[in-house]
Amino acid sequence: MSLLQRTFKLSEHGTSVRTELLAGFTTFLTMAYIVLVNPAILSTTGMPLAGVAAATCLAAGIGCLLMGFLANYPIALAPGMGLNAYFAFTVVGAMGIPWQTALGLVFVSGVLFLVLTVAGVRQLIVSAIPRALFAAIAAGIGLFIAFIGLRSAGLVVKNDATLVGLGDVHAPTTQLALLGLVILSVLTVLKVRGAIFIGIVATALLGWALGLATWTPQPYSLEEMTGTALQLDIPAALGVGGHGFGLALLEILFIFLFVDLFDNVGTLVAVSKKAGLMRPDGTIPRLNRILFADAGATIVGSLAGTSTVVSYIESASGVSAGGRTGLTAVVVGLLFLATLFVAPWAQAIPAAATAPALILVGAMMMAPLAEITWDDPVIAIPAFLTLITIPLTFSIANGLAFGVIAYALLRLASRQATRTDWLLFALAALFMARFVYMAFEA
Q: What's the whole-model pTM score?
């Protein structure tokens, strides 16, 4: 029996080395767009783009290796879409917190992930929140991402009379973004593997050919690739030294914890079902090991210089290709590490090429809405509030708060509340206290 057979128990899972290799390549192609999109988002904070690109590859590579060897699951990890937007546009952009401090918060959240996993608290929190809110959070983040993409494309602009309005569709860069959206959509409909990655590159090539994007290639150095490495400010994240951010840091930490938790649970359930890895009672084998891999990847990502690392639903593409073990994740990890040496060239990709990817990724995140029981107002109202307030208030935190508070109140009003809902009401009380604090701050 080969080393790979023994390590990943290929025969027990009815798979082979060849199948796992193919599955790994398939998963990598479907999520390789993150190497281009994540730096485009995080660099808006002032973070060095080449450094973020290298950090993205490093965090994804190590995260996938941890998942493969530690948990033996065909699930790939990388910096999460949604959390990177929250990091860039809310934490750094709107709240004015330095990106070094934000990275420190990502590190602290990763350590807390480990502690809460050991204590079993993460599992308790999951059981307290209805699955409908998981679905609404995922879709709300999708709308958030799509809105950012529309704004980057110039399709949505500020309007003093109506808050937002249609941009100039005759602008060359906006037309390039629209063309890119058509290309990505057609490739996706045709089920081309790596459709998003291929579409971004094709749109960028068109931009260069038509003179709508300019870039002067320059050799990059190790210094540029490590521009974000070990730049995190943990003392500031912990509030040491009186930086004046107060409870805002606790709120950010809370969101990093919760969104990552919900995102991972949804992905784990979906991919485990598709791969036939769930037990008959609906539980997931080796769940703690999966969560440990996730937490470890987030810690590594913060040290390298990127936002929270999460499990990717694109892993389902590799499962569809036959992936059933951690060898699939290991292949994805090795491919990300190999990409590390060309990652800084991501700065050559214009915003008009990455904006369509954000719009398309947002569209694909709408699928969980089908899981919501819309004819039950106790579920539907909190889910809708969560869904709509995330993009319209430009805050995942507000969406979570409205959803949890509304669900807790409606459980009480409908006399459905039980003693087992104590954690739900505790979370609702925390969110209400947050709004009170915000009112006093204002």
A: 0.71
